[in-house]
Amino acid sequence: MRTFTLSSLLVALCMTLPAHAAAASGPPPEPDAGRVQLALRRLGVVGRVLYVAAHPDDENTNLLAYLENVALVRTAYLSMTRGDGGQNLVGAEQGPELGLIRTQELLAARRIDGAEQFFTRARDFGFSKSPDETLRIWGREAVLSDVVAVIRRFRPDVIITRFPPERGDTHGHHTASAMLAVEAFRAAADPKFHPEQLEGGTEPWQARRLLWNKSSWNLKPGEDLSGFIKLDVGAFSPLIGVSMGELAADSRSMHKSQGFGVARARGPIVEYFKVLDEAAATAGKKNKPGPATLFAGLALTWDRFPSKAAGILRGLTDKAARAFDATKPYASIPALLALDRALDAAPDTSTRAQKKREVADLVLACAGLFVEATAAAPEVAPGHELEVTASVIDRAPVKATLDDLRFPFESAAVPVGKLVAAPTADAAGAALEVKRTIRVPVTEPATTPYWLEAPPEAGLYRVADARLVGAPENEPALRVAFGLTIAGRTFTVVRAVHYKWTDPVMGERHRPVTVTPLVSVRPDASVLMFPDAGSRALIVRLVGGAPGVAGVVRPAPPAGWIVEPPTASFSLPRQGAEVTLTFRVRAATKSAATKGAAAPGVLRVVAEVGGTFYGRGVVTIDHAHIPIQTWLADADVRLVPVQLAKGGARIGYVPGPGDEVPASLRRVGYEVTLLDDSALGAASLARFDAVVTGVRAFNTSERLRAAHAALMAYVEGGGTLVVQYNTNNRLAPLTEPLGPWPFAIGHDRVTDETAAVTFESVTHPALTTPNALTARDFEGWIQERGLYFAETWDARYQTVLSMHDPDEHALAGGLLWARHGKGTFIYTGLAFFRQLPAGVPGAYRLFANLLAGGASHHGP
């Protein structure tokens, strides 16, 4: 008897349609007959394609869907970054948390189009205009080694870049991704390049062809495309009942945090490709014309291996696909087992292992076996117990026996030796369940994404285990191995342990079981601002990871700061119990370097339990379109003194998507009222000293766009209106005016957060009232100066500041100021949405001046 191990590749086999795209936790979804037949046909294809770009949402889902489901080649997308430097339309998460969301959005997209997903360690540090800057910040050698590692493990025949490697009118990350792909095409085949990657059986790999997939968005009328390979990727698949344009649109629409929902396309979709490089054996003679198709001259089937074994495999795979009966899929099991035996003689070890996994997955699918492992709770602390239930249901007339089970953290398998009910063809089957209480070792680390385990470098995540490089996420913390015998063959089926519950709206939901700290420590804010000499409240939320947790919280302030009380006891009687503790933080000393203010610093919050210290907290991210995510964030709080004067305290705020500016303003003493659609009339607005609209608020709120007259009446009557950046493009066109006079929002931005800022008029109230600004107020900004600046404007608008990236002309459209009636209208593309939550003092001082609107309303 032979042993098979079923892998996560079953998830790719069981691609789900959009309604089920978020169901990633729990057992893989069961494939229908059409997808099983598609997978059977794929057994005879051994080719691979790797698509390379910079960010989540850069991938061409039309092409990925076609390659995977029509060409039947194994396809993967390598994204350089996890998109953590972007914006967020679905929530307030930024930075690492946004990277987690966008990672899961990519995986949700891949569950729809069927491709696989890889990443490098590169961080998305924000928009970059230069590939040189990008590669310098990322660390060219480090990220190149990651690309090479993925190529060597995935072994693609063809590599396709989304962007051209030449500098052009695109993001620096985009160009850098193509440049790295070009270099890695050859470096992956060089055994002298990072030879440590070749340990453990990995070999150098030379892909046969490197192509650039020209974006159809950038096609110019009359452009000469005669030198490009053309491919229609819009084919219809009767097996899955959709065209590739429909499947691709559903896939792309999973990038919800970026607002990339698109309509389904049907009919022809032509893609264009240019050859960037070819391996010598593929290129042929020097003057030979380029390939006419993507795969011209490449053997993508068993014909690649000229041997008797390859001929046998070709015949068996063809026979298995032809003989499939959708009403009796279990009848294909003998042919699949015969194919597995023949695979032992396959001449290529990597292909052999891959196809054996695919065959094993198909055996399980055709047998109708449902296998899952669930837990009584969604989390468990080290040193504590958790009840796990292993379940098997046989839903086809195929004899199956559950031989044994290997539970998490147990070295020996638990013998079972029971027949899983083998029903008749029309019966639903019966479940065989085995419950076991496991104990998690006290040494088991708490669950957090592997790339967030250690503090990152400026452009690169630190990953201690090189084997994880490229992986989209961690292996599950808890898994159960099922020893099964099906049709006389033994299998090992591995399932992640998950927790499931019923939501009254969404129905059955799943989440992975995680290992949680004994106590989670979460301050209510990552930054405390001190605009005066008073104290500020620090609220710390503690959550028990196990029953009966008690200890002491010991905030550790930096030099010159005092926390009162210095310690506080807590008791958490049950798992999941919560308690909040309140401390007061104040400055104890002054610093000459900060002109009398206390020096900024980091306060670390630590909970001591039985002599062990806990200084991280569980952050939970819950959006309906992706599985629930958790990560461990350091319980650190930045203490930031700021000399701040306010010209008015009552602020009405129309939030944009994922907007943390209101909370930031409250931290320095503003009274902020969030405004909904019903509060946008002129009479309702009149009570506020200033009204602010959040980033992209006009893009996302139809009611706000319709309230232009009321907003202008508020300004005319003496109010101050501050409009933060909006976009104006094909995805978010602005057809209504934003201000009293015309101005056009462009794509101009300043990405260098250290770029020098020139004051257009040093006496302008935006720079003087009530805070006198200097160049020091533009120190310490993060990620960028601003984005989506105005590119043209009416002469009645005043410009206040100008700035520019290296080797570019000065941009003055980042801050427009206009007097209108008795009040002031302001448009700003400056990135306050990043600076204020990050606690940048100068950004607060400038924003306070904007809110004051000239204070006396007698500005220029």
- Show unreliable segments: 1-23, 856-860
Provide the gyration radius in Å.
30 Å
- β-strand percent reads 25-35%
- What is the overall silhouette? globular
- Note the main sheet: 9 strands, mixed
- Please give the number of β-strands: 43
Distance between the first and last residues' Cα = 89 Å
Counting DSSP H or I runs of 4 or more residues, the number of helices is 20
Tell me, rounded to a whole number, the average pLDDT.
91
> What structural class is derived from the secondary structure elements?
alpha/beta
Portion of residues within helices: 10-25%
Briefly say what this structure is.
The protein is 22% helix and 28% strand. It is built from 20 helices and 43 strands. Strands 1, 11, 13, 14, 15, 16, 17, 18 and 19 form a nine-stranded mixed β-sheet that branches.
List the helices and strands and how they pair.
Blueprint: E1 3-6, H1 9-13, H2 33-42, E2 48-53, H3 61-69, E3 74-79, H4 96-113, E4 116-119, H5 131-138, H6 140-154, E5 158-161, H7 172-187, E6 209-214, E7 229-232, E8 236-237, E9 242-243, H8 244-252, E10 270-278, H9 280-283, H10 308-322, H11 333-343, H12 349-367, E11 369-375, E12 379-380, E13 385-394, E14 400-406, E15 414-420, E16 431-439, E17 479-486, E18 489-503, E19 507-512, E20 514-515, E21 519-523, E22 527-530, E23 536-544, E24 549-556, E25 561-564, E26 568-572, E27 578-587, E28 601-609, E29 612-614, E30 616-621, E31 629-634, E32 636-641, E33 650-654, H13 661-666, E34 671-674, H14 682-685, E35 690-693, H15 697-700, H16 702-706, H17 708-716, E36 720-724, E37 743-745, E38 757-759, H18 765-768, E39 790-793, E40 798-799, E41 801-803, E42 815-820, E43 823-828, H19 832-838, H20 841-852
Parallel strand pairs: 1-18, 2-3, 2-5, 3-4, 5-6, 11-18, 12-20, 22-32, 33-34, 33-35, 35-36, 36-43
Antiparallel strand pairs: 6-10, 7-10, 8-9, 11-13, 13-16, 14-15, 14-17, 17-18, 18-19, 21-23, 23-27, 24-26, 24-28, 25-27, 28-29, 28-32, 30-31, 37-39, 38-41, 40-42, 42-43
Helix pairs in contact: 2-10, 3-8, 4-8, 5-7, 6-7, 10-11, 11-12
